[in-house]
Design brief:
The chain is 40% helix and 20% strand. The protein has a two-stranded antiparallel ribbon. Strands 3-4 form a two-stranded parallel ribbon.
Length: 85
């Protein structure tokens, strides 16, 4: 179990991410992350593949950064300072 899933198991309804008036609980974050990661694999990305995300600073941008990690995808943000190599 990864750290996000472990935290979601302990505190499923606590806020994980907040952006203005929007908030996702830990369980929502993990569910969305896993769904996105599986969708990327369904689209043909394989472990080790690079996924580039072009998005503003938002809940969805954070989600994109965590979504591929469940399937060993590499993430690179359009915000260069956050690019993982």
């Amino acid at each position: 179990m990864d750290i996000l899933a472990a935290h979601a198991a302990r505190h499923p309804d606590r806020p994980a991410l907040i952006e203005g008036e929007r908030a996702w609980s830990w369980s929502e974050l993990v569910e969305r992350r896993d769904r996105l990661g599986n969708a990327l694999v369904d689209l043909g990305l394989e472990p080790g593949a690079h996924a580039i995300v072009y998005a503003g600073n938002s809940l969805e941008h954070y989600l994109a950064g965590t979504g591929g990690t469940t399937n060993s995808l590499k993430y690179c943000s359009n915000l260069a300072r956050f690019c993982r190599r």
